[in-house]
C-alpha cells in the first residue's frame, strides 16, 4: 500500500501563455519518473476535457475556463496518477511523473500479466491471500486469520498461539515459509505456536497439497508461503501504525511499520507489541472427566500472555539485481491453563485469580531470531535466486516442579528447553529453454542443530542435514494450456545424541535383584534417508473457466522425536516412544481445481484424493510404562479425500455474498488403528459471508458491514484419546470504514469486529484445549485503527 | 468418481453439476463403514462395597491391603496400572465425590512409590483388579494418591484417582 502513498509529481517551472479574458490553456509534460524520458500516448482525462501526450510527452488542453480542475493521467504499464490544477492567470506548466505499475523485479517475472492470470496458468493448486484480506480479517494470530480460507484450519493453544492445519494435516506436515526460508522451530510440539509476526505481511500463497517438489520435506500436506514484500518505489517513504484493542482477553496491541527507498537502497522496519489477559469462555466451570474446575468470572485462568516483535529489512535494487536482508525477532510468553495442562490435572497454591494479566506457571516462552537474505540476479536469459537463512529458536516450558513415578521433585521450574539453530541455503536458476519452455533448476540445503535442557525429556539433541536438487519445466503449449513437470531428489542425515535420566529408577532384574539406574532415553545414532518427489500438472483456461489437474508424489523425513523419543510427556500424560525403523513418509495426491467466473458470479471447486503409503502416527497402545500409557510411533497407510467449494455472487452493486465449504475424510487403512481417522481431523464446515457496502456516511468513507456465519458439523470420526465434538454455528460481524481526517492525506482505516455475537458455547475439534473440554472463546469486541502516513 | 466428475464439466449446466458432484463426493466417502471400529472407552470404579481404597481412606503402615477396582469394556480389556504416590505438595486432587482434609504441606524424605503395571489376559469385558499391597513401615506418613488406570485392546484408557492418607 505504500506505493499508493507515492508522490503525485506536480511541480511548476514555466509560464503559460495567457489568452484574452475567460479562456486559458493548460500546458504540461508527462514523463516517466524513473528516468525522466517522455511518456508518449498518455491520456489526460478530466471532466469534459481530454488530451493525449505527444512523442515529447507534451500535451495542451485549450479553451479552459478559470477554475480548479482535476485530471487523471493513464499510461500503459504505469500507475494512474491524478493532479489538480488551478486555471487562471499566471499558470505554470504542469509536470506529471508516471510511476511504473510493477516493481522493477516483478516486471521481469510478471511480464505484463496480472497476478491472477499468472496464478491461473500455474498448474499448482494454490490460493493467494492479500494484505487487504489479512487487514480485514485479522484475528489474534496469523493462522486464526488464515483459517477463514476454505481448507485451512488451526490448532489453537489458547488465544495467542496457533499452528497451521491444511486439509486436516498439521505439525511438520505443513511447511511455513517466510522470505523463501522454511520456518524452523519445534513444530512437532502439541503446545507450540507459530512464531511469526502477523503484521506487515503483504502476500501469502497457500498451497493445499503436497509440494515437496518446490519446498522439500515437510511440505507433504501443504505450504503457507509468506512471500517477500514488494520492493518500494524509488524516492518513497511511507508507513502505518495499527492499534488494536479487544474486550475478551483485554488485548492491547500496537504495530508500526515504515518503508523507505531513495534510489537504489531501501529499508523497512516494524515493531509490534501485544499484551493480553486471560481469555473468557462462555462457561463458569470446565468439566473434564470427573474433575470440575470452577472458573472465576469466566476467565480461563493463566492464559494471558504477551508478544514483542521487531524486524528490519535492508535492500538494494538496481537494473537486473536485487538483494534484501531481513532481521527479525519474535518474542512471546504465554500462560497455559492452570487447572489442566494437556491431560494432566493440577492443583496449585498459586493465586491465579488475583490478576488476569499475569503469567504464572505453567507457561512457555519463546524467542525466534531470524535473518534472511533474498538475492535475485538476472543474467541474460537466466534469473538466479539465492535465499540464505539463519534461525535461532529458543523455547522454554516452565511448570511447578512435581515428582512423577521415580522422578523426585525437580530442582526448578524449567521443564523443557529447546535451542534450535537452523541454517538454510536455497538456490534456483530460472531460464527459458525456448519460447515455450521455462526451466527452473535448484538446490535446497538445510542444517539443524537442536539442543535440549530442563528436567523433562521428550526429544533428544540432534543434528540434521538435508539437501535436495530439483528441476521443473513450465511448458506453454499455447496461451491457454500449460504443463508443469518436475523431479526432485532429497537426502538427509539425522544424528541423535545420547540422553540419560538425571534421577535413578528402580529396576527389578530377572534374577530377583533390584538395581537403581539412570535410564538411557536416547542413543548416539545416525539415520540416513533419501527420497524422490515428482509432480505433473496441467492448467487449461477456457474462456471464463479454468481447469487445473495435478498429480504429485511428496515425502517427509522422519523427525528426531518420531525416531528417538523415549520419555513421559507429562502434559499429555503419555509415554512417547520413537521407532527407529520408520521410513520417510510418502504421499501421492491427485488435485483438481475448476474455477468459473461470470460478471456477477463465480464458483470454484478443488477436490483431492490422497494416499499415504506410510503415515507416521503416534499410536496409543494398550501397554503401560510405569503406569503411564505408552504411545508408540507407527506407520500406517492412510486414505484421504475431500476438497473445498467456493462461490461468490454479487447481488447488487453494494451486496456481495460468499459461501465456502470444506471437507476432509481420512482413514487409516492399515496398522493398529485400521479404520480410524487421523488425530485432529477437522469436521465438515461451511462459511457464509455477506458484505454490504454503504454510501459515504458523515466522515465514514466506504463503510462496509460484513457478517460471517460459520456452520460446522459434528466430528464423529475420532481416534483415541479424542472425544467426539458436537457441531456449532457462530456468527461474527465486522464493520470496516475509512475515515478522512485531513484532506489530501491517506484515510485512517477503522475496523470494529464482533466475534461470537451470541456468546455461543462451542468446542473446536482441533483446539489444543478441546482434550480437556474447554470451550472456545466467548464474545469479543475488537477495535482496530490503522493510521497510514 | 473423479473421471465422471471431469466429464460433467463440459456440459453447459456445469456449475450445478460441480456442486452436485462435490456433495456426492462428500456423501459417498463419508458413508464408508467397511471396518467396525471400537469407539468406547473402558470404565473403572471403586464405588462398590469392596472397592478399595475409598476416597479419604486411612491406611496404616505395616498393614497389607487388597487394592480392588472394577473395570469393564465393550470389547476387550488389555492392561491396568496402580500408582501410589505422595501428595505432600498438594499438586493434584482426586476425582471422587468427597473432598478430603489434606494435612499440612511437607517435604518428602522417604515416600512410598508404588508404580506397577499388569496385563489382563484373555478377552475379558469385565474384571476385578485385586492386588495386595503392603505399606512399608519406614515410609513417610501423610497425604497420598492412588491412581488406577485401565486400557482396552484398542488403546482407549480410563483413569480414576483417589486421595488417601497413610498413618502410623
UniProtKB/TrEMBL annotation, chain A:
Pfam families: CarbopepD_reg_2, Plug, TonB_dep_Rec_b-barrel. One of its GO terms (biological process) is siderophore transmembrane transport. Its main location: membrane. Residues 120-223 form the TonB-dependent receptor plug domain. One of its GO terms (cellular component) is cell outer membrane. The keyword Membrane applies. Keywords: Cell outer membrane, Membrane, Receptor, Signal, TonB box, Transmembrane, Transmembrane beta strand, Transport. InterPro entries: Beta-barrel_TonB, Beta-barrel_TonB_sf, CarboxyPept-like_regulatory, Plug_dom, Plug_dom_sf, TonB-dep_rcpt-like. Residues 308-735 form the TonB-dependent receptor-like beta-barrel domain. One of its GO terms (molecular function) is siderophore uptake transmembrane transporter activity. It is found in: Cell outer membrane. SUPFAM superfamilies: Carboxypeptidase regulatory domain-like (SSF49464), Porins (SSF56935). PANTHER family: HEMOGLOBIN AND HEMOGLOBIN-HAPTOGLOBIN-BINDING PROTEIN 1-RELATED (PTHR30069:SF29), TONB-DEPENDENT OUTER MEMBRANE RECEPTOR (PTHR30069). Belongs to the TonB-dependent receptor family. This is Iron complex outermembrane recepter protein.
UniProtKB/TrEMBL annotation, chain B:
Keywords: Signal. Pfam families: DUF4625. It comes from Maribacter ulvicola. This is DUF4625 domain-containing protein. Residues 1-31 form the signal peptide. The lineage of its organism: Bacteria, Pseudomonadati, Bacteroidota, Flavobacteriia, Flavobacteriales. It comes from the Bacteria.
Amino acid at each position: 500500500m505504500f506505493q499508493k502513498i507515492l508522490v503525485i509529481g506536480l511541480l511548476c517551472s514555466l509560464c503559460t501563455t495567457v489568452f484574452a479574458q475567460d479562456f486559458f490553456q493548460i500546458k504540461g509534460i508527462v514523463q516517466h519518473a524513473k528516468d525522466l524520458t517522455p511518456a508518449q500516448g498518455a491520456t489526460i482525462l478530466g471532466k469534459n476535457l481530454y488530451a493525449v501526450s505527444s512523442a515529447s510527452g507534451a500535451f495542451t488542453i485549450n479553451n479552459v475556463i478559470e477554475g480548479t480542475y482535476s485530471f487523471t493521467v493513464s499510461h500503459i504499464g504505469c500507475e494512474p496518477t491524478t493532479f489538480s490544477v488551478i486555471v487562471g492567470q499566471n499558470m505554470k506548466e504542469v509536470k506529471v511523473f508516471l510511476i511504473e505499475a510493477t516493481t522493477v523485479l516483478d516486471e521481469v517475472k510478471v511480464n505484463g500479466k496480472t497476478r491472477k492470470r499468472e496464478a491461473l496458468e500455474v498448474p499448482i493448486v494454490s490460493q493467494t491471500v492479500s494484505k487487504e484480506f489479512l487487514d480485514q480479517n485479522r484475528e489474534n494470530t496469523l493462522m486464526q486469520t488464515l483459517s477463514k480460507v476454505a481448507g485451512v484450519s488451526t490448532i489453537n493453544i489458547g488465544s495467542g498461539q496457533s499452528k497451521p492445519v491444511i486439509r486436516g494435516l498439521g505439525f511438520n506436515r505443513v511447511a511455513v515459509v517466510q522470505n523463501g526460508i522454511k520456518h524452523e522451530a519445534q513444530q512437532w510440539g502439541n503446545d507450540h505456536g507459530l512464531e511469526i509476526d502477523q503484521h506487515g505481511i503483504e502476500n501469502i500463497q497457500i498451497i493445499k497439497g503436497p509440494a515437496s517438489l518446490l519446498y522439500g520435506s515437510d511440505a507433504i500436506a501443504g505450504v503457507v508461503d509468506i512471500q517477500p514484500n514488494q520492493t518500494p518505489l524509488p524516492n518513497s517513504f511511507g508507513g502505518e501504525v495499527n492499534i488494536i484493542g479487544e474486550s475478551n482477553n483485554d488485548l492491547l496491541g500496537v504495530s508500526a511499520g515504515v518503508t523507505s527507498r531513495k534510489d537504489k537502497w531501501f529499508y523497512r522496519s516494524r515493531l509490534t507489541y501485544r499484551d493480553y489477559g486471560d481469555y473468557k469462555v462462555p462457561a463458569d466451570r470446565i468439566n473434564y472427566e470427573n474433575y470440575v474446575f470452577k472458573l472465576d468470572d469466566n476467565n480461563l485462568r493463566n492464559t494471558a500472555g504477551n508478544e514483542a516483535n521487531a524486524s528490519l529489512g535492508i535492500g538494494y535494487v538496481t537494473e537486473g539485481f536485487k538483494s534484501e536482508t531481513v532481521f527479525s525477532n519474535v518474542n512471546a510468553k504465554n500462560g497455559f491453563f492452570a487447572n489442566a495442562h494437556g491431560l494432566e490435572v493440577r492443583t496449585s497454591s498459586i493465586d491465579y485469580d488475583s490478576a488476569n494479566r499475569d503469567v504464572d506457571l505453567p507457561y512457555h516462552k519463546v524467542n525466534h531470531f531470524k535473518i534472511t537474505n533474498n538475492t535475485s540476479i538476472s543474467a541474460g536469459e537466466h534469473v538466479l535466486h539465492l535465499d540464505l537463512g539463519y534461525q535461532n529458536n529458543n523455547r522454554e516450558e516452565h511448570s511447578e516442579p512435581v515428582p512423577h513415578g521415580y522422578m523426585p521433585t525437580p530442582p526448578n521450574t524449567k521443564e523443557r528447553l529447546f535451542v534450535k539453530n537452523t541454517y538454510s541455503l536455497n538456490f534456483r536458476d530460472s531460464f527459458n529453454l525456448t519460447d515455450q519452455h521455462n526451466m527452473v533448476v535448484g538446490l535446497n540445503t538445510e542444517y539443524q542443530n537442536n539442543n535440549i535442557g530442563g528436567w523433562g525429556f521428550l526429544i533428544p539433541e540432534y543434528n540434521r542435514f538435508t539437501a535436495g536438487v530439483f528441476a521443473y519445466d513450465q511448458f506453454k503449449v499455447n496461451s491457454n494450456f500449460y504443463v508443469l513437470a518436475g523431479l526432485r531428489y532429497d537426502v538427509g542425515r539425522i544424528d541423535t545424541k545420547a540422553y540419560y535420566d538425571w534421577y535413578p529408577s528402580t529396576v527389578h532384574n530377572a534374577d530377583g535383584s533390584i538395581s537403581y539406574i539412570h535410564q538411557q532415553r536416547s542413543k548416539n545414532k545416525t539415520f540416513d534417508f533419501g527420497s524422490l518427489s515428482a509432480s505433473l500438472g496441467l492448467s487449461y483456461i477456457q474462456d471464463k473457466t479454468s481447469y487445473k489437474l495435478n498429480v504429485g508424489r511428496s515425502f517427509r523425513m522422519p523427525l528426531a522425536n518420531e525416531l528417538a523419543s523415549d520419555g513421559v510427556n507429562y502434559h499429555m500424560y503419555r509415554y512417547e516412544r520413537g521407532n527407529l525403523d520408520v521410513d520417510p513418509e510418502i504421499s501421492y495426491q491427485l488435485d483438481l481445481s475448476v474455477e468459473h467466473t461470470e460478471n456477477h458470479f463465480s464458483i470454484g471447486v478443488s477436490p483431492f484424493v490422497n494416499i499415504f503409503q506410510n503415515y507416521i502416527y503416534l499410536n496409543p497402545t494398550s501397554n503401560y510404562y510405569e503406569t503411564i500409557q505408552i504411545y508408540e510411533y507407527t506407520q500406517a497407510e492412510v486414505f484421504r479425500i475431500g476438497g473445498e467449494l467456493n462461490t461468490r455472487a454479487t447481488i447488487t452493486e453494494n451486496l456481495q455474498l460468499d459461501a465456502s465449504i470444506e471437507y476432509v475424510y481420512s482413514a487409516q487403512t492399515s496398522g493398529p488403528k485400521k479404520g480410524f481417522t487421523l488425530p485432529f481431523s477437522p469436521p465438515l464446515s461451511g462459511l457464509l459471508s455477506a458484505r454490504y457496502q454503504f454510501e459515504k456516511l458523515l466522515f465514514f468513507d466506504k463503510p462496509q458491514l460484513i457478517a460471517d456465519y460459520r456452520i460446522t458439523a459434528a466430528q464423529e470420526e475420532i481416534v483415541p484419546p479424542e472425544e467426539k465434538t458436537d457441531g456449532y454455528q457462530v456468527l461474527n460481524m465486522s464493520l470496516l470504514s475509512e475515515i478522512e481526517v485531513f484532506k489530501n492525506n491517506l484515510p485512517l482505516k477503522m475496523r470494529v469486529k464482533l466475534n461470537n455475537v451470541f456468546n455461543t458455547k462451542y468446542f473446536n475439534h482441533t483446539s489444543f484445549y478441546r482434550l480437556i473440554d474447554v470451550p472456545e472463546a466467548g464474545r469479543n469486541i475488537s477495535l482496530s485503527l490503522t493510521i497510514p502516513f | 468418481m473423479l473421471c465422471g466428475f471431469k466429464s460433467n464439466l463440459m456440459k453447459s449446466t456445469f456449475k450445478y453439476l460441480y456442486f452436485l458432484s462435490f456433495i456426492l463426493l462428500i456423501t459417498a466417502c463419508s458413508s464408508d463403514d467397511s471396518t467396525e471400529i471400537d469407539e468406547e472407552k473402558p470404565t473403572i470404579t471403586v464405588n462398590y462395597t469392596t472397592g478399595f481404597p475409598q476416597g479419604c481412606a486411612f491406611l496404616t503402615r505395616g498393614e497389607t491391603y487388597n487394592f480392588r477396582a472394577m473395570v469393564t469394556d465393550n470389547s476387550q480389556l488389555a492392561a491396568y496400572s496402580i500408582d501410589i504416590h505422595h501428595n505432600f505438595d498438594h499438586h493434584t486432587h482426586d476425582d471422587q465425590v468427597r473432598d478430603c482434609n489434606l494435612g499440612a504441606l511437607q517435604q518428602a524424605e522417604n515416600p512410598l512409590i508404588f508404580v506397577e503395571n499388569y496385563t489382563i489376559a484373555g478377552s475379558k469385558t469385565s474384571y476385578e483388579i485385586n492386588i495386595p499391597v503392603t505399606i512399608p513401615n519406614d515410609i513417610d506418613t501423610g497425604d497420598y494418591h492412588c491412581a488406577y488406570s485401565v486400557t482396552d485392546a484398542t488403546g482407549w484408557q480410563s483413569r480414576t484417582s483417589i486421595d488417601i492418607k497413610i498413618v502410623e
